[in-house]
Each structure stands twice: as structure tokens, then as C-alpha cells.
Amino acid sequence: MPPQRATLLQVAQRAGVSRSTASFVLAGRHADMRISEDARQRVLRAAQELDYRPNLMARSLRTKVTRTVALVSDTLASDPYAGAAIHGSLAAAVAHGHLLFIGETEGNPLVEEKLISDFLDRQVDAFIYASMFTRYVRLPRLLRDRPVVLLNCLTRAAPAHHAFIPDEHEAGVTAARTLLDAGHRGGIHLVGNASERVFAARERLAGIGSAGARLAAPIECEWWPESAYEAVSRALRDGLAPRALICLNDRIALGAYQALRAAGRTIPDEVSVISFDDSDLAAWLRPQLTSISLPHYQLGWQAVEALLGPASEPAVHRLPMPVRLRASIGKAPFE
Amino acid sequence: MPPQRATLLQVAQRAGVSRSTASFVLAGRHADMRISEDARQRVLRAAQELDYRPNLMARSLRTKVTRTVALVSDTLASDPYAGAAIHGSLAAAVAHGHLLFIGETEGNPLVEEKLISDFLDRQVDAFIYASMFTRYVRLPRLLRDRPVVLLNCLTRAAPAHHAFIPDEHEAGVTAARTLLDAGHRGGIHLVGNASERVFAARERLAGIGSAGARLAAPIECEWWPESAYEAVSRALRDGLAPRALICLNDRIALGAYQALRAAGRTIPDEVSVISFDDSDLAAWLRPQLTSISLPHYQLGWQAVEALLGPASEPAVHRLPMPVRLRASIGKAPFE
């Protein structure tokens, strides 16, 4: 059983003052309430001796502030990126003297409504509405008129709340420029699922195009190493001689590495590889993989800053995705 | 600004009943309080129309129950295992109708004390005290007399609380038996940091020994691919001809794979590899890596079950670490 919490009345009795005197002292109002220094010292000593802790929940009934934030996400597990976004959110919340609830909806609107209601029952001050993958969302009705910030998602309507997403378009520009700077002009293939339905893929492709890189036929695969291994292996067997691969994430790059090695093609001398994510994996591959960072820690941190810091006009914020240059890009041969 | 919460008084006024009648109806006590069906219907309708939500925090001042759990961890970021433990804890908490706070101490006792105090100020019902790596801990003084469960850590003293850790000793037995079953008797090397100070390494080594596997000289390295790559490469250059490698985690196995491949040794025909973690990486390597699972989701789930479920005698629970057989272990040649 938890130890019984000392009450304000017990502090007052031990100090030999009234409950309201004790209350004024502990609220720092001894001066305007003309409380003697002697009484003040007795109250403070009694509070210390009894390990008195002001009841924040009782106080919150008056102030309506619990100094808590809830992070409501579709999914939290399975991916280190989610971890980085939570970590950034947590760090910023703590910096603002807030504690962080987390909850997961599995993308189910009924679970979401129940979860948000449960948080409202605990009088959470503010919400982070987060998505695992960058995408358009509809903000739940229960959240619309509350302090809320969108993390890794945005609404199609004009922003009524701050939204923080990675700048995927600029990341595409960066990928293209990195290859163009190394002299690559042809034989550049995208590896991945270039579906129009995937926000990141769509924006990256547009960025690559706007930077003036011309792509050869894409090598279509899912977002996993084995799928990429099979797709790249098949393309090489069919006679493809790529000069450079733009892989849509580091896992795809791992599969591409495995397929190139199995076919006896060397990285970066024969084939250059660039990727997106800059996960741990990128630094573990041999040669180390040049990859464009997903700024998930920064997304979490800045989202909470916007939520708990000074108010500002709602906007969509696209955070930079810097390239981490490693050893997987070679100079294009003279033609 | 959040919409103003409807009060019980407003519900009562709209329904044309007294505040206490409304309260009894909403608490389901219309029968024992002899409230007419007509009044009951009016109260329920008014509550619905006003989107009335019982003030759980006001109620908690009476019942002392907030239905919240706090997960206090040394670190939460950077590792997918932490994510799995949090996810398991969250799922079990929600199954018990509780919400989950998370907080991080960075292993700093002052941060830890402040964080726990902040949770106590919000009258959290129960605590999960978690560690990133399995280890012995001292439970913070503030938590000792409260409902608390230890996740991935344990105390040296007789358990005053439930503690959930992976069964690392049995995992060592499993690793040894898997190799013995494939006929391996010699040329088995541990790859990793076999320091007595690391709980998991110490227990696994003891398990390997107790299963009757004799290890040749260990290949010492840190817990990262590059360190393992260099250590295994050096050992091979020095003339080592290993038959089997027991890698202390999947990252080390990745480095070992890279070193074996660079030296022209094939897996599993010439060298068998077994590892611990069963992370995503194990399934991504070629050949796929046989690895022994860390049960972090289960640790989280079962810890919270013990915390919020029926009370039982405190104990240390060692959760099974099953082997996931894949393609990295070959039969030993006849000698």
C-alpha cells in the first residue's frame, strides 16, 4: 500500500497555524497575507517533516491544468522511427515541465475515440496526434477545438493546428543532386514501391524530377530487404546494367546490396547506391551506405515545442532531411 | 481553448432534477435511491446532449484511483527492444483500463527522483521500473512501498516486488544444444564482449557451459557490427578455422557474416552462426540467421499483468527465450 499522503491540515496542525495560513505559506503568499516569518518557518518545517506534497490533482480542479500531454498514435511499436519521435516528444515535454502519456489506436476510429475520451477524463492539457508513416489524416472530432499538434501527418484543409512532417520533396532533390554531383547522368533507377498512394514516395519522386535527374525504369519492390533482393536480382538477370540505385529506404538498400554482391557487381565502383532513412543499418553495411536522414527526433521535439511554447499562427512545417555522405557513391565513368 | 466541460449541475438543471438525483442516476443507483424511470431517462438524455463526462480527477480525490500507470526507464530511445517492452506494457495496461505515462531518467538518480515525484503528484496508481539492459538495480526509495513491478531488471535482495527478466541462462543452454544437435563438438567460438560485468553475457556463458558445450578461445569485440567485423577478420587472418560462432547479438552476427564473406568462408557449409536477439536483422541476412529471441514484448505485457492483475507472492520471473531456427547452422563434418 502506498504511504498515506500528508494533508494540508496535518501540516497546519503540526505548525500550530490555521489551514489557510499553511496554504498561503506554501503558495508563497506570506507577504501579501501578512504572515509572520516565525509562522512561515514552522509551516515550511512541518511540510518537510511530513514529506507534504501538494495535491496536483486537487489543484488542477481549480486551475484546470494538469501539465500532462498525450501522444495519440496509430501505432507505436515495431519501428525505431516511432521510438525517435516519442523520444523527441518526451524530451520537449519534460523541458516544459510536462509529463507524457502515450496511446495507440491501431488506426481504428473506435479505439481512437475511446482512447481520446479516456485522456480527456484525466484532463490532459494537450495532444500530439501522430502517424507512423507520413500521410494525410482527418483530425478526430474530439480533438478539433483543443490544443493539438500533428506529428508526421497533416490535414488536407487549411491548417488549424501546427503540423510537422519531413521535407520529403527536398529529400528527393538532395538524392538527385548527390548523384548529379558525382557525375551520374544515366542508368539511375529507383528501387522501391513508387506508388502514388505513398506520400513519401510521391514527394521524393517529384523532388528527384525537379532537380533535373532523369530516371530509367524503376525496379518495383516492397519496403523489405527480401523483396528488394528478388527484384534487383531479377533485373540484373534480365540484363540491366544500372549505374546508380536510389533506394526508397535502408532496408531496400540492404536487399539491393545483397543482389549486387550475388551478381558480382561492386559498390560503389560499378554501381552507386543512395537511400533514405539513415537508420543504424546504413552505417553497418559494407561499404557504408550514403542515406538521407528521417528527422523523427526533431519532429517530436519541435511538435511539442509548438504545442507548449509561445502561441503562433498554425502552419505545416517541413523539417530538413540532410544527406549523410558515406562510401556507397562513386564517380560516374566518362562516356 | 478546450470547450468548457459540462458540469453535473448543468445536467441536473437541464433534466429538471436535483444535483444528487442526477449523480445517483449517472452512478447507476436509480433503483436503491428509488428514482423514477422518467427522471432517469431525462438525466441520461441531458448527459448525452451536453456531452457530459464524469470528472475522473475529481472522483480520484475520493477514490484515490486514477487508473494510470507510469513506466520509469533509464532510457527509452535508440533501441527497438525498448519499443517492444513499452508496447507490451501499453497493451496490458489498456487491457486493464489503465493509461500509460512514460518517463526517462538517463540513469541519473536526481532526474529519477524528480520524475517519480512528478508522477506521484499526479497520483499515478502503479509503477513499472524498467531497464534497457538486463541488470541488478536498487529500487528508488520513493517507490519502495508502492505498487511497482520491475521490467528487465531485478534487485539483489529477496524480491519485494515482481521482476521480469529474460531467461538468459536457458538461452545459453539453447544455443549450445542447437549446435550440439547439429553435430558440432569443436571449433566453437563465442563472439562478443564476454565480460563478467554484463548480466546477459555472464548468464549465457554459464548456460552454454552447463549444456556441455566446450568453447574454444573467445573472439572479443564490442556489441557492434564494425567491431565484430574487425575482430573476426583478425582472427581469420591469424589462421583461426572456426566451425561455429556463437554471437552475443544479431549486430555482432552481421559483422561476423561480413568478415567470413570477405575471407571467402561460406555460411553455413564451412562455418555455422547462431546469435541472440532475433531482431528484424536476423531475417534480413543472407543466409537468414538462426537467433534466440529476446522476449521484450512479453516482459512488458507480463510485468503489467502482475502489477494490475490478481495479487500474488513477489518473485523473479525468467521468461523463455525460444530459438528461431533459420538457415545459418550446418551439420558438422565427420571427423
Distance between the termini of chain A: 78 Å
Largest sheet of chain A: 6 strands, parallel
Q: Write down how many β-strands of chain A occur, each being a DSSP E stretch of 2 or more residues.
A: 12
**H-E order of chain A:** HHHHEHEHEEEHEHEHEHEHEHEE
Largest interface: A-B, 54 and 54 residues
Arithmetic mean of pLDDT of chain A: 90
What's the gist of this structure?
The structure is a homodimer of 335-residue chains. Chain A has 335 residues and is an alpha/beta fold.
Structural description of this entry:
2 copies of one chain form a homodimer. Chain A is of the alpha/beta class. Chain A has 3 domains: 8-54, lambda repressor-like DNA-binding domains (434 Repressor (Amino-terminal Domain), Orthogonal Bundle), CATH 1.10.260.40; 63-167 and 298-319, Rossmann fold, CATH 3.40.50.2300; 168-295, Response regulator (Rossmann fold), CATH 3.40.50.2300. Chain A is built from 12 helices and 12 strands. The first copy, chain A, has a 6-stranded parallel sheet with strand order 2-1-3-4-5-11, with helices on both faces. In chain A, strands 7-6-8-9-10-12 form a 6-stranded mixed sheet, sandwiched between helices. In chain A, strand 1, helix 5 and strand 2 (99-104) form a beta-alpha-beta unit. In chain A, helix 2 (19-26) crosses helix 3 (37-49) and helix 7 (168-181) packs across helix 8 (199-210). Chain A is elongated. The mean pLDDT of chain A is 90. Strand 2 (99-104) of chain A pairs antiparallel with strand 2 of chain B, so a sheet runs across the interface.
